[in-house]
Amino acid sequence: MSGPEPQRTKFEKIILQQFQNYNEKAVIVLGNIKENETYFLNENVVVKSHVFSKELNDIINKSEVVISRSGYSSIMDFVVLQKKALLIPTPGQSEQEYLAEYLKSKGVFYSVEQKKLNIKNQLPKLNDLKEIRNRKSSDFIDMESLFKRIFADHFG
After folding, report:
1. Fewer C-beta within 10 Å: the chain N or C terminus?
2. Residue 1 included in any domain
3. β-bridge pairing 38-40 and 45-48
4. Is 18 a domain residue?
5. How confident is the model at residue 127 (pLDDT cuts 50, 70, 90)?
């Protein structure tokens, strides 16, 4: 979990509530660097308050799917690691909202607004996505150009 407060904490509460009765194996990383605890939300779901980069990379590598904010570096990680992802843009972060919607429209990732998140209904939609390694290069765009356009529109 990431993002500015209070959105990070709101996202954390939503995720923890929705995974309370989740029946598949899952790891939730809260991104809370002030804590260093690990506990089980239920018999299948492990919650870690914080992990370092290597452990996070290991967790993502072992995951079939990832639920994440739609920040540029996270998206690039999922592309390189060829992971299916459910992207949840941080409310009010226009670049994340744009990226998530654009990549959803191309069928690269699935995305939903934080307030509309329902993992029970939305995780199965990831099955409709093609694996990243099977995507055509035209399904992706020049991310540098995209970011220049976003920043020019919003900050230029």
Report:
1. C
2. no
3. antiparallel
4. yes
5. confident
